[in-house]
Amino acid sequence: MMSKAITIAEAQRYDAHTINEIGIPALVLMERAALATFNNILNDDFDLSRIVVVAATGNNGGDGIAVARLLKVRGLNVEIYLLGDPDSATPQTKQQLKIADYYSIPRITDLNRIVNATLIVDAIFGVGLSRLITGKFADAINAINAADAKTVAIDVPSGINADTGDVLGVAVVADSTTTMAYNKVGLLTTSGKQHSGTIHVADIGIYAQDRLEHAR
Ligand SMILES: NC(=O)C1=CN([C@@H]2O[C@H](COP(=O)(O)OP(=O)(O)OC[C@H]3O[C@@H](n4cnc5c(N)ncnc54)[C@H](O)[C@@H]3O)[C@@H](O)[C@H]2O)[C@@H](O)CC1
Ligand SMILES: [K+]
After folding, report:
1. Binding-site annotation: residue ranges
2. What is the predicted ipTM?
3. I want to staple 177 with a disulfide (CB 3.0 to 4.6 A). Which of 21, 123, 152, 196 is the partner?
4. Which ligand is nearest to the CA of 93?
5. Is 153 helix (H, G, I), strand (E, B) or coil?
6. pLDDT tens for the chain, residues 1 to 216
7. What torsion, rounded to 10 degrees, do the Cα atoms 187, 68, 114, 135 define?
8. Could you tell me if the CB of 135 is within 6 A of ligand 1?
9. Beta bridge partners of 122
10. Pseudo-torsion of CA 83, 121, 70, 58, nearest 10°?
């Protein structure tokens, strides 16, 4: 297993190369990200009786909504707390919302459902976090941190800058983080480690240039 850590710019460059140059569809990468997170959830020792996925409308949210669907299909009790306007979601995340609706996954709007969950999946922000967190996004993160539930973050604990480990106002304190392709530089800092918990690096088919050249 490679122990290399990458920056936000590298993550975005490798993602774009995989999708645009190699041709692996973004939804395939999203499904692999979701499956890796789902498997890490099932392999851990969590109370799965009341699961809430907290998702925003970027691709990190799409990963989380796909995880919600995998859990629902498995027969588990899962709800989605959606932040932001679904009409401005990324195309992949819109597709995940459509699939989640097919499976009638409840969408909740009451922060108390987060506080009373037994497991929370944090899919608010990943490497796309770009500014200070305020308003309803901050309220949701504070509710996640106030809950007794275990918390699993997707890619990056929301609120952590994946380059510096800085908290952009407020950040999720996770018990574990499934991070995609490579670890992120910011998660190796003291603050990054405190917020990530146990880090699982998931191979989802995105590789750095040197590994790609090796395989050709
Ligand atoms: N693009 C890809 O190839 C892949 C992306 N993946 C996932 O997608 C994530 C990156 O997705 P995105 O680039 O869509 O970015 P994110 O989903 O991390 O966040 C971007 C969204 O958050 C908003 N935002 C940023 N800071 C905010 C703030 N402080 N308050 C409110 N809104 C804020 C942006 O306007 C944008 O809508 C990764 O971390 C990973 O989880 C994975 O699915 C693997 C493949
Ligand atoms: K996240």
Report:
1. 59-63, 122, 126-132, 155, 158
2. 0.97
3. 196
4. 1
5. strand
6. 456 999 999 999 999 999 999 999 999 999 999 999 999 999 999 999 999 999 999 999 999 999 999 999 999 999 999 999 999 999 999 999 999 999 999 999 999 999 999 999 999 999 999 999 999 999 999 999 999 999 999 999 999 999 999 999 999 999 999 999 999 999 999 999 999 999 999 999 999 977 777 788
7. 60
8. no
9. 54, 153
10. 40
Residues at the annotated binding site for (6S)-NADPHX?
59-63, 126-132, 155
Contact 169, 159 (CB under 8 A): yes
CATH dotted code for 5-206: 3.40.50.10260
Instruction: Label residues 142-160 b or e (16+ Cβ within 10 Å = b).
Output: ebbbebebbbbbbbbbbbb
User: What count of other Cβ atoms lies within 10 Å of the Cβ of residue 22?
Assistant: 11
Tokens of 125: 């922000």
C-alpha of 183 from chain center: 13
| pTM of the predicted structure, to 2 decimals | 0.97
Q: In this structure, what token pair is assigned to residue 106?
A: 């409840």
